[in-house]
Amino acid sequence: MKKKQQYPGGGADAWPHGAPLGGAPAGLGSWKRRVSLLPFLRFSLRDYGFCMATLLVFCLGSLFYQLSGGPPRFLLDLRQYLGNSTYLDDHGPPPSKVLPFPSQVVYNRVGKCGSRTVVLLLRILSEKHGFNLVTSDIHNKTRLTKNEQMELIKNISTAEQPYLFTRHVHFLNFSRFGGDQPVYINIIRDPVNRFLSNYFFRRFGDWRGEQNHMIRTPSMRQEERYLDINECILENYPECSNPRLFYIIPYFCGQHPRCREPGEWALERAKLNVNENFLLVGILEELEDVLLLLERFLPHYFKGVLSIYKDPERNTAREGTEAAGVGEGETGLLPSREPNAGLHPRTLGS
Ligand SMILES: *[C@@H]1O[C@H](CO)[C@@H](O)[C@H](O)[C@H]1NC(C)=O
Ligand SMILES: *[C@@H]1O[C@H](CO)[C@@H](O)[C@H](O)[C@H]1NC(C)=O
Ligand SMILES: *[C@@H]1O[C@H](CO)[C@@H](O)[C@H](O)[C@H]1NC(C)=O
Ligand SMILES: *[C@@H]1O[C@H](CO)[C@@H](O)[C@H](O)[C@H]1NC(C)=O
Could you count the other beta carbons within 10 Å of the beta carbon of residue 4? Predict the structure, then answer.
């Protein structure tokens, strides 16, 4: 009832017809007059009806909002296919038995989480399956201004479908700019391992190109480059006192400035986004299982990926992961060239 008094409606007859919302604001005079004339209870039944009507409109609006926003169609279809849909289980048609096929996939890859390996695999797969692999040369720009977001989203959206776009970039909200929200995938890893991997990568590259580290940190002094990671941590060097364990979150939270402030807000939003927009967020430590799932869920892109990954002839694809997997034992001066057998037995298997 309060609403009604706060928003006295339009013309003189708006009140008796019970449609006060949305009209032009009434003059102060008429407002006063109405209030003083109003024996509140006399109108209670009409008011009740009005409230129910408002509530109904609100519910419909909210339902419409949920239907037009929310998870992309593909993810709902896939949940339905898998027989586990939150909403459609109760209200929708019976589960379809056709695996849905998304024609827009984005892999906004997190740095030092095995993404080079996956991109190498994707190159092979895109030739094999004929999808459009769109990669970016920009590796050091994960946050974008609003205009940059718009331009990038436009660029991605005009790519020939089916496409798989990949770049180191924080989550982009396509629907915010009127685009179709694509299906997201990503791979993360134990944050401590990621920190170790990055520590050595900045200094020595990943053994792929001899000059790799020179490009990353050309001006690093030799003492710093050869600084023992134990010393770095125990002596609280800036690089090691804040190991940037939060690094992964903005990839899932998005481009909002608060996404880059370590805290609850960013974490909650990241989790929400993972639920709504990501088909899969794999764990590097279980890469083979992740590849198997991708093969099952996105066969048009990933069919046969596991056998390519395991193929000894193509062991270039695995090198990256092994090099990136600088591990628990690797606290010495130089990362060993040996595959670190202890760390990711499943990744390194066979
Ligand atoms: C759906 O998934 C939830 C866990 O996310 C599980 O508890 C539930 O049993 C599943 N329902 C069906 C019908 O598979
Ligand atoms: C990213 O790298 C390019 C060179 O590859 C450099 O010109 C540019 O300044 C870098 N940008 C940032 C934000 O580091
Ligand atoms: C979008 O594409 C145009 C031309 O294809 C290119 O000039 C521009 O740099 C691209 N923008 C982004 C953000 O990739
Ligand atoms: C994306 O944009 C839409 C439309 O502006 C908004 O409703 C939604 O909350 C946004 N999602 C995220 C995760 O920012």
Answer: 19
